[in-house]
Amino acid sequence: MKHARKWLALALAGALSLSLLTGCAGNTSDTPDDSSNAEQTQSTSSQADSDALVIADQGIFSAGGTVTQSDGTFDVANYYTSRAGSTSHVDHANVLYQIPEDATGLPMVFLHGYGQSRMGWMTTPDGREGWSDLFLRMGHSVWLIDQPRRGEAGQTSVAGTMTTEPSDQTWYTQFRIGTYLDDAFTYNEGSQFPQGEEVLDQFFRQMTPDTGMDNAAGDQNIDNTVVAQAVAATIDEVYARTGQDSILVTHSQGGIPGWDVPQYTDHVAAIVAIEPGMAPEVDSASYQALVEQQIPMTFYYGDYIGEEFTDVPAAAMWAGMASTADTFTEAYNAAGGNSTVVHLPDEGITGNSHFMFQELNNDVIADHIESWIQENVTA
Questions:
Q1: How distant is the alpha carbon of residue 206 from its chain centre?
Q2: CA distance 359 to 229
Q3: CA distances from 63 to 154, 163, 321, 363, 374 (A)
Q4: What is d(CA 107, CA 140) in angstroms, rounded to the nearest whole number?
């Protein structure tokens, strides 16, 4: 042990001597002095600081929902096994919010689609920044919803039925990312979806079951009223905290209850619908509420939509769904509203699937949406 300590001491002494010699050599005219090194370090630090996303406030809360109660009287002596007279807080939204240090734009409330959670807005399958970060950098606070009976808002008043039946290939094809041929996932030509086995592994693990849905029967029996009311409660809470109306951003299945939200709140500044399942039916209660409040809105659709894409199985189906946006927009604008339908290929932005906000050019599309906001939405 003594010999070991002796050799350790000698080694440390040698290292210290070498360090001192190196330091002396560093003072020669061939080596930059300490002030130059300090300036370089400061420059690197300043660059890192300028890229940093600074959050002034963040948190998480629940909004909306109801309380159910079972029959009978609660018996504390039998509290663990009896549920008589018990209550349950259910059918609410769960909201994660972040407010940037420089909050110059309107709040943005994000509502995910079928089989998803707020995670889809926060990142990409290959680990790049998601839309929540991109819009934070543009000066918007972001309010990310897990809709009722999904994700962290799983408490439900309706007993769903889970299923373990595999379905990755089905949704991959429906989302127009590609399809599955010869035991391999393929990509549509020119696809902007990030590729690789690790990417797909991350993407498929985003899928989130609905605790109130009869998944075993394959029925998407989502209660749009429950979702819309919870989203409206979220938007009212955003108004209470910020004094500002919100821009509601919806995706896919989330777009359907999204149209109903203005029936329950008058604090929607605009709606950005990313490939919604369908547009509001003209003269419906949702349509009337939108017309009365004169809410500007825009629809965004990606690539591979239309019967000409014969190698994309879901292309014709999506063309039919997209046509409802054209019908709505024509009627809404005639009624004095402001609606636009954006097909990204017409804007020179190609290769995007149903998940455009997670693809390689998600920043380009976010910039396009921000331009629409600046031109059409009044703070």
A1: 11
A2: 31
A3: 13, 28, 30, 30, 29
A4: 5
Compute the distance between CA of residue 238 and CA of residue 265 in angstroms, rounded to an integer.
12
d(CA 199, CA 127): 9
d(CA 345, CA 222): 32
Closest to 358 measured CA to CA, from 168, 128, 201, 191? 128
| Bridge partner residues of 249 (DSSP) | 110, 272
Q: Exposure string (b/e) for 90-114, b if CB count within 10 Å is 16 or more?
A: bbbbbbbbbbbeebebbbbbbbbbb
The reported pLDDT for the residue numbered 41 is: 52
Cα gap 239→268, rounded to integer Å: 10
Distance, in Å, from the CA atom of 234 to the CA atom of 144, rounded to the nearest integer, reads 10
Separation between Cα atoms, residue 30 and residue 21, nearest integer Å: 15
Please report the DSSP string for 349-368 in residue order.
--S--TTGGGSTTHHHHHHH
Q: What are 365-378's pLDDT values in tens digits?
A: 999 999 999 999 99
Q: Give me the sign of the Cα torsion angle 242, 248, 254, 257.
A: positive
pTM (two decimals): 0.87
Backbone angles phi, psi at 343, to 5 degrees: -100, 110
1-12 b/e (C-beta count within 10 Å ≥ 16 → b): eeeeeeeeeeee
Nearest Cα neighbor of 178 from 187, 165, 167, 169 is 187
**Contact (CB, 8 A) for 225 and 215:** no
Rounded CA separation 249/246 (Å): 9
CA 270 to chain centre: 17
Q: What pLDDT band is residue 3 in, cutting at 50, 70 and 90?
A: very low
